Amino acid sequence: MCSAVLHGDPRAPWRAAAARPDVTAAGLEFSYTTAAGSVIMSAGAVGADRNEVFQVPLIDPDTPPSSTGGYPWRVGPAGGESTVVYLKNTTMAEQMYLLQVSWPGGAYAPGLKTLAPGETLALDLRHLRDAQVPDRLGRTIPIDVAGGQVHWSAKSRERHAIIGRAETVDPEHAVSSTYACVNCCPDNPYDSWTAPGSLALGTGITDVLVAWLRDIDCYDTILEAYDLGPGQLQWSSSNTNVATVSWGEVTGVGEGTANIYGTYSTSWWWEQNTDCESEPYNVVYASQVKTQVPTSLAIVTGLSDLCSNPPSCQPPGCTGGCQAYYYKYRDYQVMDGTVPPQPIQKVMQLNESFTTPTNTCGATFLTGNATTNTAGIFRDSFFFYGNGVCAGGGSCTVVRNQAWTEVSSSNTVGTYTLTYTCNSFSIQ
Using an 8 Å Cβ cutoff, are 151 and 139 in contact? Predict the structure, then answer.
């Protein structure tokens, strides 16, 4: 991508652009000292075979009423006609824009994009379709779609920040057509929301809010939704003791409910005489966040056996005189401290600890931690090796006091007492 300012030898900028393999489009800039629109200019391009000649009128950025565009697009068979859309940032500052490619029954929307100062963008519709390039939502232009409409709009308060044009070229017949149709005014916000609409968090747990917006053009067409990058909004929390937010990332702090706000500063456009005027406009997002502090457990499944009593299991791959192992489990739902307690629906990390006041079985225990799944349920296992007493028809007893502590809050969320004998196994 390149912009050329012609001084002296007019061929020098073209040579410089042709020497760069990364240049796919070039912009021409001319200066004059009279009133805007008083000079008419055009550019001509000749194909390498000299069978194709294309003439393009040049636009003074100060003359269109707004930085918008709407054009037809066509893509024929291979080697046939194809449309390329050009957008140029005419300012010395970065500019944002939205573009949408539509056809009967479908749309392709790359989302909110930026143009660098002076940048010229070339959007090849044939390439987007044939290469099946996905848009922001993963959608592609179907191979059998041959045409439709292109709409774009600057997302700036400057009336003359971006100019655009569509060129449809048919090399086979050596003809071309050019479009620089301008919409009456840039697009305005239509509706907005966050995804998800609300959050349930554990303490120390982070989730992300994504702000979405739909615009409406000046002809009352509702356009495709697009997500705003987190840096486009100003974020705040109504209660930082419950939840904090930074760049859309919300973190649970303490038990309670808070509102997370995001403010997107844009403009609202209206037509005045023959030009468009803007005024500052804020789109405000509000999402409710509930932070749950784990305080207790509820039993989800009863005690389940993977090895029976007395033991009949051997370690995997073990034969002969290997020691038996004992493996039983129970599923628990982590609950919060509300009245009545509510299930916590987020992943959290739990550390487990235990004491063994009675162990006449010679058992060797394993301990570790537990991670809940997305429903806040975790599985705790009673797992140990070795028991020569029971194998000979004798008896022994293990009493184990088990406790779990949630890592981020240090809350003890549950305890139980496990009792094992050669013929029974219970958890209370």
Answer: no
Q: Tell me which DSSP letter residue 232 carries.
A: G
Minimum mean pLDDT range among 103-117, 181-195, 217-231, 390-404: 390-404
How far is the C-alpha of 106 from the C-alpha of 142, rounded, in Å?
9
The DSSP-derived string for 21-42 is TT---EEEE---SS-TTS---E
Cβ neighbour number for residue 118 with a 10 Å cutoff: 17
Q: How many CB atoms lie within 10 A of CB 423?
A: 9
Gyration radius of the chain's alpha carbons: 34
Q: Which of 358, 350, 407, 411 is nearest to 381 (CA)?
A: 350
CA distance linking residue 13 with residue 248, whole number of Å: 44
Residue with the two structure tokens 């409910």: 257
Closest CA to 178 of 99, 69, 51, 103: 69
Instruction: Give the Cα separation of 164 and 152 in Å (integer).
Output: 9
Contact 396, 390 (CB under 8 A): yes
> Which band of pLDDT confidence, cut at 50, 70 and 90, is reported for residue 2?
very low
Quote the pTM value: 0.72
Shortest CA distance to 346 belongs to which of 249, 252, 239?
Answer: 252
In the chain, the percentage of residues whose pLDDT exceeds 90 is 38
Shortest CA distance to 250 belongs to which of 172, 303, 195? 195
- Does 77 sit behind a cis peptide bond, omega within 30 degrees of 0 on the bond before it? no
Q: Tally Cβ neighbours within 10 Å of residue 279.
A: 9
- The H or E element containing residue 309 is none
* Closest by Cα among 130, 78, 123, 74 to 97: 123
Give tens-digit pLDDT for 206-234: 899 999 999 999 999 999 999 998 899 99
Backbone angles phi, psi at 183, to 5 degrees: -75, 165
Q: Which CA distances in Å does 279 have to 49, 267, 276, 348?
A: 51, 5, 10, 46
